[in-house]
């Protein structure tokens, strides 16, 4: 890569974009919900309980026929996950996290498509919808560009 004035201009624009994202409402909401979640002992206890249940399940996951309490361990993971997911702080954090991810996905798509509409954008969200397509962006096939 040749470093010239165009490179520096592009780097400046990148820094401005990052500053705009970091100072925006979406990022503020994300940081605030993350801070609230970090201080919420009850929510953190639920997260720890889920992680412990998940680790117990991962130890027996490969051997369902040989672990006598496999079904119980698996059920505990589902129960712990549900309890964790229903916590208000966890829910608000995940919603803010998803909103930030959608913003980043949209920016990535706009940048890529400014160069060429044929560039496939792999979004961080498997359910991210691109344009009029009903398929996720990473699965789009641009048939019109293929002769």
Q: Care to describe what's here?
A:
With 147 residues, this protein is mainly α. The protein has one domain: YheA/YmcA-like (YheA-like fold). Helix content is 66%, strand content 0%. The protein contains five helices and no strands. Helix 2 (25-39) runs antiparallel to helix 5 (88-115) and helix 3 (41-60) runs antiparallel to helix 4. The two termini are 31 Å apart. 9% of the residues are buried. InterPro entries: Bact_com_dev_regulator, Com_YlbF, YheA/YmcA-like_dom_sf. This is Cell fate regulator YlbF, YheA/YmcA/DUF963 family (Controls sporulation, competence, biofilm development). Pfam families: Com_YlbF.
Tell me roughly what share of residues is in helical segments: 55-70%
Query: What integer value in Å does the Rg equal?
Result: 21 Å
Would you tell me the structural class of the helices and strands? mainly alpha
User: What spatial form do the alpha-carbon principal axes imply?
Assistant: elongated
For this structure, what is the CATH class?
Mainly Alpha
Low-confidence stretches: 130-147
Query: What CATH architecture would you give?
Result: Up-down Bundle
- Number of DSSP-assigned strands: 0
The biggest sheet amounts to: none
Please write the string of helix (H) and strand (E) elements: HHHHH
């Amino acid at each position: 890569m040749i470093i010239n004035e165009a490179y520096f201009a592009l780097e400046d624009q990148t820094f401005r974009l990052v500053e705009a994202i970091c100072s925006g409402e979406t990022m503020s909401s994300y940081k605030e919900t993350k801070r609230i979640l970090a201080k919420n002992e009850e929510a953190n206890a639920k997260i720890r309980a889920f992680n412990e249940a998940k680790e117990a399940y991962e130890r027996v996951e490969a051997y369902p026929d040989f672990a006598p309490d496999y079904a119980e361990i698996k059920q505990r993971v589902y129960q712990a996950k549900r309890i964790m997911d229903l916590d208000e702080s966890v829910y608000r954090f995940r919603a803010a996290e998803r909103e930030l991810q959608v913003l980043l996905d949209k920016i990535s798509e706009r940048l890529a498509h400014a160069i060429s509409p044929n560039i496939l954008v792999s979004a961080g969200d498997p359910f991210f919808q691109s344009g009029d397509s009903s398929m996720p962006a990473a699965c789009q096939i641009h048939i019109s560009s293929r002769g």
